[in-house]
Fold Kynureninase.
Amino acid sequence: MQLSDLTQRDEQDPLASKRMQFELPQDTIYLDGNSLGALPKASAKRVQEVVSQQWGNDLISSWNKHQWIELPLETAEKIAPLIGAAKDQVIVCDSISVNLFKLLTAALAMQTGRNIVVSEQGNFPTDLYMVQGIEALLGEQRCTLNSVATADIESALTEEVAVLMLTHVNFKTGRIHDMQRLTRLAQDKGILVLWDLAHSAGALPVELDKCNADFAVGCGYKYLNGGPGAPAFLYAASRHHDAIRQPLSGWMGHTSPFAFDEAYQPAPGIKQFLTGTPSVIAMAVLDAALEVFTDIDMYQLREKSVALTDSFLTLKEQQAALDELQLISPVDTSVRGSQLSFTHQNAYAICQALIDHGVVPDFRAPDIIRFGFTPLYLRYQDMHTAIEILVKVMSEKLYLQQQYQVKAAVT
Amino acid sequence: MQLSDLTQRDEQDPLASKRMQFELPQDTIYLDGNSLGALPKASAKRVQEVVSQQWGNDLISSWNKHQWIELPLETAEKIAPLIGAAKDQVIVCDSISVNLFKLLTAALAMQTGRNIVVSEQGNFPTDLYMVQGIEALLGEQRCTLNSVATADIESALTEEVAVLMLTHVNFKTGRIHDMQRLTRLAQDKGILVLWDLAHSAGALPVELDKCNADFAVGCGYKYLNGGPGAPAFLYAASRHHDAIRQPLSGWMGHTSPFAFDEAYQPAPGIKQFLTGTPSVIAMAVLDAALEVFTDIDMYQLREKSVALTDSFLTLKEQQAALDELQLISPVDTSVRGSQLSFTHQNAYAICQALIDHGVVPDFRAPDIIRFGFTPLYLRYQDMHTAIEILVKVMSEKLYLQQQYQVKAAVT
């Protein structure tokens, strides 16, 4: 594979013009959109408008005038098609962690006589931590985490299990779970299924309704490009809306918040999952970011994502200097998300050296270098440049330099 | 009281120059800073910097380079002196509702054998709703809300009570509770005390440490001017940090989030109250807004607040046309926050007519007109203008016009 092959693919890329919708730093190949998506120009514009005009000038009247009150649903309506959710099943609010708490406690309450939450070792820690928090709060007789090896998930699905909670695409390896199959297997045993879409939403097609998923949560700041710490989203299938009751019953989830009744009465439908007053600024930034997706076919996006990871891997394998980097992502593209992860004992320092030379991956303890591939703003030719720099870092052992060894607070 | 008296007070006002630090709309007297504070110029500047430079250009590296990871504590350190809290007891995160959930569940767990949460009828609904959510989740034998009339609070403090949860300044009437006395009375019975400072923080001096408060929550978007839906804050007295365990145990509250351990281990101290990834943009806006307070003496601010409400009330009482407006805030300034509330059967329409004529109060169902007085950006002369317009609206019965009767989504 040559640079010319890649520039040719760029010329033919139907998504090529999407790159123009982002502000991207000069001389940087950003392979960390799976940790923090790049800045959409629409978000930079919207934040100005919301802060200076809406807040600054229209002040409190903006809740009506600029429909701030509708943002959690309006923003969610832009996410719904990306995750295969029909209308009125998605809402934007809080963080993934808080939304997991709402859904897990509510799902456990629906599952009389069952107390086990099955999850996976190697899942993103916050998912496991939230179950542990619920376990400590409710006691083991009402909630017990059973975190099993990937190979043991299916056999763990017994009739004592209340909830199966999995992350669709693993944050370390990029491995994709078979959502349809696992949802069906679990539901056959009466288990409710909760998917974490942190590394899927905006990166690959997700079919929540088609898979008959019960619940899902997802992240606004990764592939949806909603800005650092953007609000998260929550999906609950409509069939559950009447039966469910979540315990974080704040005023924004009340059926009539401005009546100031003293008894909580949940709003009908998905709005019952709101809790406190959401950050309008943060949500508006995410809302604007989602404009990039309005004309996107997620299957076409996925095609480019696969082609990008494949190109990167092919180029990597052509370089003996990169043999030390051990792939831990699946080779089979059908079960690989929009990322490639490699292990190396100097992973941290390699990441730092790469960043210093204009290629931005991230490090995941203890020894993983993670490259994320965002089809919206990456070019095929970037794969070539990134590999060139990676070869330089590895062959010249630049990562052994002292300045790359010092660990920062966030790694 | 004449306009000239008021302009003279403006000339002598040591806080007069603070008004220059805000972007304020032309020809508007904004008496709703207790619902949404005005835009500080520093926030408008900071949001640009965070979005365009930090996010847009420095991307993921900003978590270290611009110390995003430190924001929840750094922003909290600016709030701590305003609420009388020594270092390391305050953190900025989530919403008031979510923070109430953390503190209430944690406090209940500390109070073996006690299950009652005493609160007050007429408290802000979300406070009551969150207890109701916990009651439904844990069962009445672990949590029961006892919401009593204001006059019955003291007699409700028995040895069955686990937590006393009160809002320091009532959102409807502006009545201030005696924090020191109530905290002491409750603690004499072994009760933990949780204060909601939504209408106090930034409006009047609060002395959490001095009053020996156990816990508190507060709002970023009212008197702290942190923007619509700004993150909230949480206070937990250091003496509780070792014993307490909150159930929303997300990765940001882990002692070592980037180690990606699978077992939750709370961070020491106040950081254990973090849950998910916070909105950096929203928090940075609040952080910048707090710069306005760096040289503020809260006792001096309180003096102006009292003088503003007193001027407004004196002017109001000089006008027979305003007799129909019934004061429901205390007359005694020592127990009155930075607001004045009046009832009238046409309260909603009166608010709308006032807004249309350049004076912005807010409506609180069913019949309250609420005027908030923010000493940082209001002038004494504004009291005169506001009363003039109020007289016009009332004497000409402008509120009876059709267009002021139509209720908006947020009222």
In short: Chain B touches chain A through 97 residues (CB under 8 Å). Residues 3-30+297-404 of chain B form a domain with the Aspartate Aminotransferase, domain 1 fold (CATH 3.90.1150.10). Residues 298-317 of chain B form the longest helix (20 residues).
